[in-house]
Design goal:
Blueprint lengths: L2 H7 L5 H19 L3 H14 L4 H13 L3 H15 L5 H10 L3 H13 L4 H17 L3 H13 L7 H17 L2 H14 L6 H8 L1
Helix pairs in contact: 2-3, 3-4, 4-5, 5-6, 6-7, 6-8, 7-8, 8-9, 8-10, 9-10, 10-11, 11-12
């Protein structure tokens, strides 16, 4: 348990109660890591009710709800996390919930906030992927492509997960727009870097 989280939890109730809550939160985090989201949510529901002002609890609760596809409930928790911390770390997930609910204007607002906040590369990449997906949902394929292309044009010696996921997304957009040569070239880059990423190999095979 990170010391700052433990300190926040200890502000609620007795030392014994705090110890119990810490144990439950650790169990929920473990279940989440093992993708046992139903198990995690059963624990987190109780913990969140007991310590509503602990940001990390609201964050994990929201992420678990997101994994379960409960978009509105996830938004409640993740927006609370953002208010408590003044952080944009979960803006991409919040935006993806809004996208799932068809609220594309809100997705654009969150993307703008993320860019202004100077978020880190991984978080920006996640936000860019959600924004591109939102544009594609509205058949604005050329705008989605324009958003992702700059990230692909940069030379990368050792591509990270964020690079591969953006390459994959752009390859998908190229294919959907009918630009098969560019789609094929990008899927080749993805497969060369990680042949097990999603269905990239299958997509490439079908394009040949």
């Amino acid at each position: 348990m990170p010391s700052d989280v433990a300190t926040e939890i200890r502000a609620y109730g007795t030392a014994r109660q705090a110890t119990q809550l810490e144990g439950r939160l650790a169990a929920a985090a473990s279940a989440y890591e093992r993708e046992r989201y139903t198990e995690a949510i059963a624990i987190l529901r109780q913990v969140a009710r007991a310590v509503p002002g602990v940001a990390s609890v609201r964050e994990l609760h929201g992420l678990t709800l997101y994994r379960l596809g409960r978009w509105k409930d996830a938004l409640r928790e993740l927006n609370a996390f953002a208010e408590l911390t003044q952080s944009v770390d979960q803006h991409p997930v919040i935006a993806d919930c809004e996208r799932a609910l068809g609220r594309h204007a809100r997705v654009e607002q969150l993307w703008a906030e993320l860019r202004r906040a100077g978020a880190g590369s991984d978080i920006l990449a996640e936000g860019r992927l959600v924004m591109a997906g939102s544009l594609a949902d509205r058949e604005r394929l050329s705008d989605a492509i324009a958003l992702l292309e700059p990230a692909v044009q940069r030379q990368v010696r050792k591509p990270l997960d964020r690079h591969l996921r953006q390459w994959y997304a752009l390859a998908d957009l190229y294919e959907r727009s009918g630009d098969l040569p560019r789609a094929r070239a990008l899927f080749v880059k993805v497969v060369d870097a990680d042949p097990e990423l999603s269905d990239a190999l299958e997509r490439l095979t079908n394009l040949r």
